[in-house]
Amino acid sequence: MRVVMFGYQTWGHRTLRALLDSVHDVVMVVTHPRSEHAYERIWSDSVADLAEENGVPVLIRDRPDDEELFARLKEAEPDIIVANNWRTWIPPHVYGLPRHGTLNVHDSLLPKYAGFSPLIWALINGEREVGVTAHMMDAELDAGDIVVQRAVEVGPADTATDLFHRTVELIAPVTTEALDLIASGRTDFTEQDRSRASFFHKRSAEDIRVDWNWPAEDLERLVRAQSAPYPSAFTHHRGRRLEILTAVVSEGRYGGTPGRIFYREGDGVVIVAGADARTGRNRGLAVTRVRTEDGEEMPATEYFTSMGGYLTGRP
């Protein structure tokens, strides 16, 4: 089949690599301009560079809705469009142009975690599996019929970075298997159960601010979800920003006020957590490694030289 690829960052790069290695003919690539947004500088392998290295025409667009782009698409005569990590709305006259429509590759187990940053949100929420879904695009974002879906388990110590590396390896087999099914004439794909759908927004600085009213179990997953190279979860101590690099749920149960710097336990310093911490039934978050506002990393037991005082969401 003649394929046009819409994609960006490492997800798009892996998709294009799979297409170039397949029996299909990549006739054009559309990608976004480079961005300085914190999350878009991560996993930023260039789709444009890969396309140019392989002699594939490239168009750079923020949005795919201009007349010139549509004219170029018609000239390319694609049998199908394949999209992965395209960040803006694709209008119906574009995704419906090829005779086989548009296949979107998304890094979640749809219908859950449509939208943005699905691996991070899934880890924060304690999901036991994450994965990659190839589905047919329709008028609703990430809502079309599922062609192929593959999952991997989430381990108790996994970070978002671990999950990225495992799921990105699924892109090539999911994409090529889906294209083979479509090329064979299959159209009877799996309809998504919209009653199970969830849609998540892009992450920002506010989303990594620690809220000590959360249970310690949720905060521990937040720390793992914001593993390097993602921006670290942060709090404030004595008016200064303090990043939490690693933490575990405490063995003991600690009562009092959320955010209280309370007790040394093992290799960590326990912070009281949970909106109902006053009951004394909650485990705390044992912070084990931190980074100061000046960029110095150290064990939490060295940073917290005495117990007492509070960690707060704002200075």
Description:
The chain is of the alpha/beta class. It has 9 helices and 16 strands. The chain has helices at 9-21, 47-53, 67-76, 92-95, 118-124, 160-168, 171-183, 216-225, 300-303; strands at residues 2-7, 25-31, 58-60, 80-84, 102-106, 114-115, 129-136, 146-153, 199-200, 233-237, 240-253, 261-265, 268-271, 283-292, 297-299, 311-312. α1 (9-21) packs across α7 (171-183) and α5 packs antiparallel against α8. The protein is elongated, with a radius of gyration of 23 Å. The termini are far apart.
List the helices and strands and how they pair.
Elements: E1 2-7, H1 9-21, E2 25-31, H2 47-53, E3 58-60, H3 67-76, E4 80-84, H4 92-95, E5 102-106, E6 114-115, H5 118-124, E7 129-136, E8 146-153, H6 160-168, H7 171-183, E9 199-200, H8 216-225, E10 233-237, E11 240-253, E12 261-265, E13 268-271, E14 283-292, E15 297-299, H9 300-303, E16 311-312
